Amino acid sequence: MSEGLDDVVAARTVLSEVDGHAGRLVIRGWTLDQLVGRTRFEEIARLLFDGFFDDLPQDLTSALGAARAKVFEEVQAVDDGLLALGPVEAMRALTARLPDGDDLDTALALLAAPAVFTPAIVRLQAGEAPIAPDAALGHAADILRMLHGRPAAAGQAEALDAYLVTVCDHGLNASTFAARVVASTRAGLTSAVLAGISALKGPLHGGAPGPVIEMLDAIGRPENARPWIEADLDRGERLMGFGHRIYRVRDPRADALKGAVRRLAGQSDRLPGRLAFAEAVEAAALAILKEHRPGRPLDVNVEFFTALLLEALAFPPAAFTGVFAMGRTAGWLAHAREQLAGGRLIRPQSVYVGPTPLKAA
Ligand code: ACO
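That is the input. Now the predicted structure with acetyl coenzyme *A docked in place:
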């Protein structure tokens, strides 16, 4: 038995490979640095979907724009009960209204869902009216427009595209596994994506970047980093944005995102200082983790610089996981279709360690 399924291989995939020793991520034959900064989200989604859907257009831009416009109709269903939820739970609830299915239209609606619902919910929770999608825009530019209520500033859509591409797929991580398990029962793509969102929101997976901001704000100044981090570890806490099940070296996505933050930093007065502070906290954390766990390589993961990038794009921390879902849904959908195409029902076994039934007298 393997607690946590370490080293268990449970799927064959053509989608992505995570090499935890080399610190390398390959997505359909391309390394992460060959893709980030050169690929828009629509293109990476097309790359992931290729071979898994009939009649896939060469360019998904207009089909995805139309899907955004269509799913926006669901925003009318938002009520006070839904707005009392956190933005990720509210986005999940709206996504659950979409019909199940296995075809490309269902997949495009699911790809559009977190991108449309997250900005709408953030605005409604701030007392502002939601903004309808502009189907003619690129996906990233439209998400920022729906969030901010004005066209994205120079460099912002490119930064969001860099983020969405960076997180689009990552081997058999917890949420992708959850999505594949549900897909293997033939429940449909909506059910598989809802399983993915539910697994993603936990802080040990995609729920970490909000707490990264809380940590940075609690530390406040570079000189506070060491005492704050040591006290946190002494309480038995885990440092958010550090450590990974597969990577034994630096997560390559962390540097892809740090690069995207640096490119954005040239256009903001506040960001260079915030980035320098985060780098000081990162350096302190790495040194302290080495002292605390000399036998365990713990390095920075994708979530640390995710937090900085999404903060710079003015997403509220409570919505960060919803933005993660905007990218990762592409991977979940491709994995779900791959599972349906070749995989069997996923049904592992457990070892019973409960009481033995009493013998009948
Ligand atoms: N801070 C302090 N200690 C840590 C951390 C951390 N961030 N990460 C791991 N450790 C410790 C564990 O407590 C464990 O100690 P123990 O054996 O005494 O219990 C030891 O290091 C070994 O941990 P791993 O086996 O490498 O960790 P695991 O694979 O179970 O967990 C995980 C990986 C969940 C990502 C973990 O590193 C963690 O909790 N990180 C903080 C949360 C976080 O950043 N989540 C985002 C992950 S990236 C993503 O999913 C998109």
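Residues 11-203+319-342 form a domain with the Citrate Synthase; domain 1 fold (CATH 1.10.580.10).
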